[in-house]
Amino acid sequence: MKHISSIAGGVALGSAGVIMMSVLSGCEAPQQEQQNRFLVIEQQANGKYIVVEEMPTEGPSRAIIREKDENGNTTERFMNEAEMKALAEQEYQKVQNGTSETLQDGGGSAGMGLAGTILAVAAGSLLGNMIGNALMNNKNFSKNSASTNKSAYSRSAAGKASKTSSSKKSFFGGSSSKTSTRSGGFFGG
Fold first, then answer.
1. CA 168 – CA 184 distance, rounded (Å)
2. What's the pTM?
3. What are the tens digits of pLDDT across the range 117-140?
4. What are residue 140's phi and psi, to 5 degrees?
């Protein structure tokens, strides 16, 4: 009887360990929305803006804005995080009122205004992940956000996100994807 109770205790302890590992591995959050960004935003011929370069940065979010002057020459200006945040907050107020171009159907295909572009690309890092996630749950906002961001980083991150969502990880690190004929076993096989 003593032997059976020690086995039961070991099983309970082992089960608790497996549950704890699954809980901890499920806490992985996508880092793309949480990281600060360095952006290069370019004005198009129609006066709208798109993101042409984007990189995660360890420092504060910041942007270089490329615009055409009255003579058609390209000028660049620097925008710090405080300026970006102020524009994003103004555009977010328009989102709350339902007047933001980021919510319009097809609004981002030819670019958006500067504030809308900044909000669409960096809402999570500038205004917090709760606001960023809430905005991305809006179908039009999400579509406009994707279409206004022409950077290679954005395309790469979107590709990684779609690959990540199509595969499942087992408790012990193995993975099985929908296209694989091999299934992830108890020990990650």
1. 9
2. 0.62
3. 999 888 888 888 888 888 888 888
4. -65, -40
